Amino acid sequence: MTLRNANEGTEYIIKQIKTDDDELNAFLFSLGCYNGERITVVSHLKDGCVVSIKDGRYNIDSQLAEAIVV
Q: Which Pfam families did the record assign (predicted)?
């Protein structure tokens, strides 16, 4: 399942990030978003979702949410 389909308020473990873009991978890693890390969808928005990773909250677009497999 991807973050786009994940339930709000449920904690998940990131299993895979499906992208070949090295810059995007580096950006996600800087947020603490990598395989094995815990992530929670705080809320779904029209064009993405708000996620909680470690001590931060981030707004990610729907394309990025589809790339993160939990």
A: FeoA (PF04023)
Cβ of 11: how many Cβ atoms within 10 Å? Answer: 11
Give backbone dihedrals phi and psi of 62, rounded to 5 degrees, phi first.
-65, -35
Q: What angle do CA 52, 45, 54 make, to 5 degrees?
A: 5
- Per-residue pLDDT tens over the stretch 27-69: 888 888 989 999 999 999 989 999 999 989 999 999 899 999 9
pTM over 0.70: yes
Please give the full DSSP string across 15-55, using - where no structure is assigned. Answer: -EE----HHHHHHHHHHT--TT-EEEEEEEETTEEEEEETT
Number of domains into which the chain is organized: 1
User: At 61, which CATH number?
Assistant: 2.30.30.90
Residue 51: domain span: 3-69
